[in-house]
Task: structure prediction
Amino acid sequence: MLSTQQSQDRIKVIVVTTALALAAAVFYWTALDAAPANGRQLSLYVTVEKDGDLVTGLRDANFRLYEDERSRSFHLDQPESPASIALLLEYGPNYGLFHSDLDALMQGFMDKAPDGNWYGLATFSHDLAVDVDFTKERARLSQAYAQLGPPGWNESDTFDAVYSMLDKMSRLPGRRVLIVAGSGIDTFSGHTLDDVEKKLESANVIVYTIGLGSMLRGEYEPYLGQDARITLLQAEAFLKMLATDSGGEAWLPNLEGAYPDVINGIMQDLASQYRIVYDSQAPADGKLHKVKVEAFQVVNDKRSDFKVRVRNGWRF
Amino acid sequence: MALLCCELVLLPILGCTEHLVAPKPPLAPSLFRPLEADLQRSYLDLFRISPELHYTSEQINQVHDYLKHVEDYCVAQYKKKADEYQSRLEQEQGSLKKQNVSLSGAKRHDTHCEIQNLRALKSQTEVIAQHAIPVAYDNREAKLDLIEQWPGQLRQVRQEIADGSYRNRRWGDVQDIGFRQIESGQEDDIKDGEEAIKQMKQSGLMPKAVESPEIVDYVTRVAERIAARSDLHVPLHVTVLNSKEINAFALPGGFLFVNRGLLEAADDESELAGVMAHETGHVVARHSHQLMTRSTIAQLIYQTAQVAGAVLTGGAASIGVYYALQYGFYGLGLALDLRLLGVSRDYELQADQLGVQFTWNAGYDPTGFIRFFDKMATQEGYVNGVSWFYDHPPFYERMVDAEREIMFLPPKTNVVVQTPEFQQMKTVLNKVRAKADEEERQRPSLLAPEQGCPAPQKAEYDSDKPIETLCSVPNNLKTASK
Result:
C-alpha cells in the first residue's frame, strides 16, 4: 500500500503532468493559429445569403472559420481590386442551338459588368482560344465576340477548356473569377472530370457557371428522350460542381431573356462577397483540406445562422 | 487547262500564293533609284519640289506597276509566313494535347516556350501583312501620284487664284467663318450626343478620362481657340481619354474626345490643332445627322448586325446606340466601317477642308495637319492602334485637297506652330503615360508568358526603316527572273 505522502506526491505529479500537457496543447493550438506552418496566407471569398437575399454589412465577429474541422483565426479585409474576371464561352458544335442565349448573355455583360475590373474572353470547341486578354475596355469583348467566325471544330472539350483556364488563372495575382457559359457537355477532352476537380481545388478561382441551351430546359424539355435527359443532367451536374466546389454559383436559365439577369446576379454576388484572410495550416500533401465558414447574427442572445457559399477546400 | 485550273482555283487553297504574284523583271536602277529617294520625302517637301522633278509618264507608270507588284508580292510572302507559323503552332498544340498527361515537366516547358514563340511570330507577321505593307505602299503610291500630278494641279490652283474663281469653291467664304451656315440645326444634335455618350459609357466603349487638370485645361484651351474661330454654334465639351490609341473623335452636338495617344504622337501644337479642327469639322457639318437621313433604320440594323452580331440588335433602332456604333466603334477604331454606307470618303474630305480652315482662322499653321498625317502614315501606319487611318480616302486625295485649301487661304504671318504650353503639357503627359504603363505592366494576362523561355523571336521588321527593306524585293525578283 502506498503511504498518504506517496499518494499525495503521485497526485501532484499527475496534476502537474496534466497541467503541463494541457498547457502544451493550448500553446500548440494557439501557436498553430498564430503563425502558419507553411506561411500560406489565403484569401477566401464567401457569399452570405438569407432567404435568397445577399447579406452585407457583417463583421469579423459574425463569422467562424474552420479548416480541416479546426477553428482558425482570420480577419475580414477589403476584396482585392481590380478583380480579374474571365468569360469562357462554349463556341462549338452546339452553337446553333444556343447562339441566342450567348447573344443575350453578352448583351447582359455589356450592360451590367461594372467598370474598373479586368475582363477577358476565351472561347472553346476542340481548342481553347483566348480572344481578348484582360482589358478594362469591356467593349473589346463584345467586339471580339461579334467577330467570331463559324466554330471550327465539331467538339466541345469542356473539361480541357475549364482545366486550362483554371491553370492560367491560378497564376494571376488578386481576386480571380471565371464565368463559364456552356452546355457542360464534354465530347473529346484529354482531361478527365477528376483532373478538373483537382485543379479546381488547387486554384483559388471562383467559378460561376451559366448553362446554355435554355430551350432544352424550357420549350423542348417535354420532348427530350431519356438519353438526352441523362446527358443534360450530367452536363448540368458538372456545371453545378464547378460552382459549388469553388464558392460560386450555377445558373441554369430556362429562358433566353434571363441571361442578362444572370450576369447582373453574378455581378451583384461579386459586389457583396466578403474576403476572409487567414493563414492556412493545411500541409502541401496533395490532399483536399476542407474549409467551412459559418456566418451568423446574434439577436437577443439567440444565434441565427445564414447560408454561406464558400469553396470546398484547398489542395496544395 | 490543268495549269489554268491550278492558278485560278487550286493555288490559293494549296498555298501556292507566291505563284499568284509572278516575279517581274526588276526596274532599271537608273530609273528606280532617283524615284525611290524622292518617295522617301515628306508630303510638304514634295509639294515644294515636285514641279522641279522631271519624270516621264512612262517612268511613273512603270514605278506604279512595280510598286503594286512589289506590294502584292511582299504581302503574299508574309501571309505565307503567317500560315506557316499557324501550321507549326497547330502542330505543337496538337502534340501538347495528345501527350498532355504523359508529358514530362521539361518537355512541357519546352513545348510551351515554342508555342509562345510561334504565337508572337504569327501575330507580328500578320500585322506586317495586313497593316504595315499595305499602308506603307499606299503612302508610296500617294507620293508617286503627287510627283506626277501636283505640278498640273499647282498650275490650276495658281490659275484659280489669279482669276478669283477659287472663291467659288465649296465653303470658299473663309472670311465669314463663324457667321456662315455650314449646316443648320447643330443644336438639335446635342441630345443625340448626350445619349450616345451615355450608351457608350454603359457599354464600356468609353475609356477612362485623363484626370490631370493641367492636361485637360490645356487641351480644352486649344479646342476652344479653334471652336471660337470656327463655324461651331454649340458649346464645346472636351474630354481627354486615357487611351494610348492615336485618335480623336467627335460626337454630335459638340462633344470632342481626344485620346492620350494623340497627344503623345503630336510634336507641336499646330499638329494637335489640325486633328482637333478636323473633328470639329465633322460636328459642324453634322455628318452624324446626315448619316441618319441617308440611311434607313433597316440599313442601320443591318449594319449593326454586321458589326456586333446579335449583341446589340436589341437597341440598334435607338438613336443613341446608333451613334454609339457610328462614332464609338468607328472613332475608337473598333469595328464599324462607314465605307459600307458609301459616305465616309466625302465626309472625311469635307472635315479635312473645314479643319484646315478652322486651324488657319485660329492662327495656327495649317500645314500641321499635313505634317501629322504624313508622320502617321510614314512612321506609325503599321501600328494596329492607329485607327485614325481606318476611315481614310486615298492619301493622295486628302493631302492634295488639304494643300489646295491651304493655298487658297489668305496668307497669314506669325502662325502658331509650337507653344511653351504644349511642351509643358508633354511633361505632365509623360507622368500620366508612366502611370498608365505601370498599370499595363500590372495587367493580368491569360497569355502570361511561360517563365524561363528564351525571349520570343521578332519578325524581321524595323519600323524605322523604309518598307522596301522588308522583303528585299528588288533583289529577290532579280534572282527569280534569272
Remarks:
- Residues 131 and 148 of chain A are 9 Å apart (CA to CA).
- The first helix of chain A runs from residue 4 to 34.
- The helical segments of chain A are 4-34, 95-112, 139-146, 158-170, 193-202, 214-217, 226-246, 259-272.
